[in-house]
Amino acid sequence: GSKRLAPQAQSIVNLIQAAGNTGLTRKELVDAMKGVVVTRQPESRILSYYQKQIVSDGHVELREAPASE
């Protein structure tokens, strides 16, 4: 069974899943975390902290950004 995610990590996963197939850039995700993921630390640090876990657990998929951007 999959391990339960910390509430902060689950919030990140929820935001990514809500974006659907279009996905989010890292910057968009960090912006979306503001006011949603409760933290005293910078949102980008929280994201970096949980990124490996949520990807390795198969919750989200990391892709390279399209070259056009």
Would you write up a description of this structure?
This protein is an all-alpha fold and 69 residues long. 51% of the residues lie in helices and 0% in strands. Helix 1 crosses helix 3. It is globular, with a radius of gyration of 12 Å. The mean pLDDT is 88.
SSE blueprint and pairings:
Elements: H1 7-19, H2 26-33, H3 43-56
Which key terms come to mind for this protein?
69 residues, 3 helices, globular, mainly alpha
Number of strands: 0
The residue ranges in which pLDDT falls below 50 over 5 or more consecutive positions are none
Strand content: under 5%
Tell me the helix content: 40-55%
Largest sheet: none
> What is the 3D form?
globular
Structural class: mainly alpha
Summarize model confidence as the mean pLDDT. Answer: 88
Number of helices: 3
> How are helices and strands ordered from N to C?
HHH
Q: How much is the radius of gyration in Å? A: 12 Å
Distance between the termini: 38 Å
